Amino acid sequence: MQWFRFFATGQDQPVSVDSATIESEFRRHRRDVIVIITLCYGLAYVCRLALNVVKKPLMDAGIFTPEQLGIIGSTLLYGYALGKFSNGFLADHAHVGRFFAAGLLLSACANIGMGLSELLWLSALLWGLNGWFQGFGAPASVVSLAHWYSNHERGRYYGIWSTAHSIGEGLTYLGVAWLIAAPPKGLGLDWHWGFWVPAAICIFAAVLVWRFLPDRPRALGLPSVADWRGDHGAVASAAANGDVWKTQLRILAIPSIWVLALASSSMYVTRYAINSWGNVYLQEIRGFDLFDANLFIFLNTAAGILGCVAYGFASDKWFDARRPPSNLLFGLLELLPLFVIFWGPNDPLILAAALVVYGFGLSGILASLGGLFAIDIAPKRVAGATMGFIGIFSYVGAGMQDYISGRLISDSEIALRFATGRGETVVYFYDYSVPILFWVGASVLSLVLATSLWRVRATD
Amino acid sequence: MRQINRFFGLLLAVSLVGACSQEIDRSFCSSHASEHWQHREQHPQLQIEYASSGELQVQLSLPEERAILLETATPGDILAMPPQCVAQPLQRSSQQGLASLRFEAACGDQLPASLGVPLLLEYPGIEEVEVSMRTPAVRKHFIVHQQCERALFNIAEGTASE
Predict the structure, then answer these.
(1) pLDDT score at B18
(2) What is the pLDDT of residue A253?
(3) Cα(A37)–Cα(A43) distance, rounded to whole angstroms?
(4) Strand, coil or helix: what is B130?
(5) Assign residue A302 a region: left if phi > 0, alpha if psi is -120 to 50, beta otherwise?
(6) Do residue A431 and residue B115 have CB atoms under 8 angstroms apart?
(7) Residue B115 forms contact with A (CB below 8 Å)
(8) Would you call B44 an interface residue with chain A, using a CB distance cutoff of 8 Å?
(9) A119, A59 Cβ separation under 8 angstroms
């Protein structure tokens, strides 16, 4: 149990009496916290998304079929769903710097293994474990934010930290794609490097986190941030109330929460279909090269930052904080571009514009289905449990999507085999028409479910 | 001890030679797609149209001097198909020094999931083949070269006068 203690948060230390020291220590640690969690959570993404970029080279090399890649991809999402749930509990008791660094290091190991593995079961196991290791980052970051920023400033810093998603997706869809893409657009490295370079980046991030992400203020001999800022919440914490467990169970009896969970899950099907298979589709069917295809996917994730902000603004200002009208608006902004992406012209500008609008709409409606609207409907004191419940549904949906999409793509396979003096060269032809119906259909279902909650009002 | 050192020295040398020769191979294979247009006319070009109705149209074009290699060829020498596919006889024509071998095949309701191209193995004189295949969903254009493990995509569309 020695190692377990190593990861545990320290005991509360006597608070320093020197106010100048307290002031300077808080300033230094708070600067470190926001820089490190934003930068390193972004870097961690590279180890999570690497497979998406190298899917096409893996298919072209005949190492894995789309169905096998679907199995491997889905294990990460199941692992991540489990990780988000279990690691949330663990992070509350952990020295977050060591906890997060361990997650990054283990994720790097999984990526190194992925670069060496051509076995389905081993890759699925490694990628599933990677999903769980990736689940160390978000809880550790949120716990850090809770310990180092007070109630009235946490929203701003949470917003800064949230940009890590786009930093990470940008680094992956542009950076890793640049490594693998053929010259002159990229370095033309082998697919293995698509895992090993992200692993090196995650090891670097782990060192930074280890060195600069501190334990709780009280464990360092500092007062709590609420005391330091004089920013105490008006309501006692939920954990102090004995009825929390019962209230948490009550959310299961709210039909709207179930509808919302299904709507979110369906929207995650489309989200992860585009993130996981979108670049493969753009290469296979639309004929773009690896770099351009990933650039298109990056555009949709970048537009997502604006979508989140715009959703909150639109629902608060235009619809008097009613989420269903905004859900319909952003749902249509998400759905309609899909018709252009899959059945529209092959013009890169039109395609790029469609992906930007899609990413904008998607992020908006996801912010509602998996966050804002869910918290409106649920009792406020169990907002965390509600988010957890919807999160599990969402990632299980995303995981099932990865397997189903891979299976549907594999079913359409036509192999053209060339016997040569060196062995065999195989070129595969796939038809994405059925998976596309599945992806677009999931968005339609999500929109119908979300709109069915038109009359649902927020609770206190 | 000296023998062990020699063994490792030899192993290192062999690895380096192996790695270097692989590097030459890789460099050729990574650049050939952009240079292929310079000698496109000297090598066979294979076109396959794969319709959703199960019908295949196949055409192999190659310089007449190379077509001699395929004088006695049958459709199966160009495209190996599953038994349910019935191929029409091979039609030959020639124009401006370019020979053309064409045939059609019908595979019925059971669409073939795998087709073979034995040209490169059965006719070692053929070093590479440029392929264009269209299915109901997608068209792919690539080169398969004896020296390269994988098919080469993104073929540059230059012309001889460039």
Answers:
(1) 40
(2) 86
(3) 10
(4) strand
(5) alpha
(6) no
(7) yes
(8) no
(9) no
* CATH number of this structure's domain A17-226: 1.20.1250.20
**Which tops the pLDDT comparison, B28 or A357?**
A357
Residue A383 CA: distances (Å) to CA of A238, A368, A389, A460, B103:
10, 13, 10, 11, 67
Q: What average pLDDT does the segment B5-24 reach?
A: 45
The CATH class given to the A246-460 domain equals mainly alpha
Is the pLDDT score of B23 beyond 50? no
The pairing of beta strand B98-106 with beta strand A414-420: unpaired
Exposure string (b/e) for A43-58, b if CB count within 10 Å is 16 or more? bbbbbbbbbbbbbbbb
pLDDT of residue B97: 85
- At A187, list the tokens: 């370095």
Query: In the structure encoding, which two tokens stand for residue A389, read together?
Result: 């419940």
Q: How many helices (H) and strands (E) does chain B have?
A: 4, 8
On whether the CB atoms of residues A211 and A40 are closer than 8 A, the answer is no
Sign of CA dihedral A68, A73, A77, A80: positive
Cα separation of A172 and A178, whole Å? Answer: 9
Q: Does A186 touch chain B (CB under 8 A)?
A: no
Tokens of A441: 């259909």
pLDDT at position B2 is 52
Of the candidates A261, A262, A282, the residue with the CA atom closest to the CA atom of residue A374: A261
Q: Which residues of A touch B131 (CB under 8 A)?
A: 416, 427
Check residue B88 and give its pLDDT: 94
Calculate helix-pair angle for A96-116, A137-148, nearest 10 degrees.
Answer: 160
Mean pLDDT of B32-43: 84
* Contact status, residue A90 vs residue A132, Cβ threshold 8 Å: no
The pLDDT of residue B1 is 43
Exposure string for A224-245, b = 16+ CB within 10 A, e = fewer:
bbeebeeeeeeeeebeeeeebe
CA distance to A79, A98, A270, per residue, from A386 (Å) = 19, 28, 22
Exposure string over A371-408, b if 16+ CB within 10 A, otherwise e: bbbbbbbbbebbbebbbbbbbbbbbbbbbbbbbbbbbb
d(CA A148, CA A35): 13
Edge-to-edge strand order for the sheet containing A423-429?
A423-429, A414-420, B114-117
Q: How far apart are CA A311 and CA A361, in angstroms?
A: 8
Helix boundaries (H) for B57-111? 64-67, 75-78
B120 with A433: Cβ contact below 8 A: no
Please report, for chain A, the start and end positions of each structural domain, with discontinuous segments joined by +: 17-226, 246-460
CA A264 to chain centre: 14
Please tell me which of the candidates B133, B148, B149 has its beta carbon nearest to residue A416.
Answer: B133
Give the closest of B120, B138, B147 to A419, CB-based: B120
Positions of chain A with pLDDT lower than 70, given as ranges? 1, 233-244, 380-381, 384, 458-460
